[in-house]
Design goal:
binds guanosine-5'-triphosphate, about 25% strand, binds magnesium ion, seven-stranded mixed sheet
Length: about 220
């Protein structure tokens, strides 16, 4: 689902920011670090012994982009093969997807390519897809070259970043890059399971995490 509201006029004449909501799904082989990336993005934390996801997890995070507050409604899917058939439920109607692989494991890169193929065939035609080469902090065990992944990403029109949920390298940057590629200036259509469109949001209600991104969220 995606909601979009124009500026909210206040009695003192100030115009509040507009707000957009986007549904984002994470896909990728088990243990590549999907949940860890979300945990880093949403809570600023990392766990060495992150439990394997069962089904899917739902979290939200807000960030600020110029005069727009972007709220991500995040579906963190389970990578284990037995959950594969559930995936369409989560990517259907999503405006953004992060397909994750582990740079130390070539099979996870091949699996990521299959997810991209599936998304480009079956998800929304305008979906913004980011490819994340995670675990960049252990690049000494690298099995997928940066340039190889970048070339592949370019050939499929994907955003690409190497990330580390452990050190937080490029995690916020990746979500910010996705937000920049989403149509924040136009009203959005519906975005999928359980989705509602919300308008007229008062942006004085900010999450502390939203404020981490600085700029437009804090100072109203
Ligand atoms: P499923 O839920 O089974 O699909 O796995 P997942 O993709 O959500 O992986 P998860 O986040 O559970 O991470 C798997 C393991 O990799 C955990 O032990 C994490 O601590 C570790 N891990 C995740 N991200 C990183 C990273 O950037 N660097 C390092 N070194 N380890 C990471
Ligand atoms: Mg997980």
């Amino acid at each position: 689902m995606a909601g979009h509201s124009g500026g909210v006029n206040r009695p003192n004449g100030a115009t509040a920011n507009k707000m957009c909501q986007f549904k984002l799904v994470l896909l990728g082989e088990s243990a590549v670090g999907k949940s860890s990336l979300v945990l880093r993005f949403v809570k600023g934390q990392f766990q060495e012994y992150q439990e394997s996801t069962i089904g899917a997890a739902f979290l939200t995070q807000t960030l600020c982009l110029d005069d727009t507050t972007v709220k991500f409604e995040i579906w963190d899917t389970a990578g284990q093969e037995r959950y594969h058939s559930l995936a369409p439920m989560y990517y259907r109607g999503a405006q953004a997807a992060v397909v994750v692989f582990d740079i130390t494991n070539i099979e996870t890169f091949e699996r990521a390519k299959n997810w991209v193929k599936e998304l480009q065939r079956q998800a929304s035609p305008n979906i913004v897809i980011a490819l994340a080469g995670n675990k960049a902090d252990i690049a000494d065990k690298r099995a997928v070259e940066y340039q190889e992944a970048q070339t592949y990403a370019d050939s499929k029109s994907l955003l690409f970043m190497e990330t580390s949920a452990k050190t937080s390298m490029n995690v916020n940057e990746m979500f910010m890059a996705i937000a920049r590629h989403l149509p924040t200036s136009e009203p959005q259509g519906g975005a999928g399971p359980g989705g509602r469109t919300r308008t007229g949001v008062d942006l004085q209600e900010q999450t502390p995490a939203g404020r981490r991104f600085g700029g437009c969220c804090g100072g109203q």
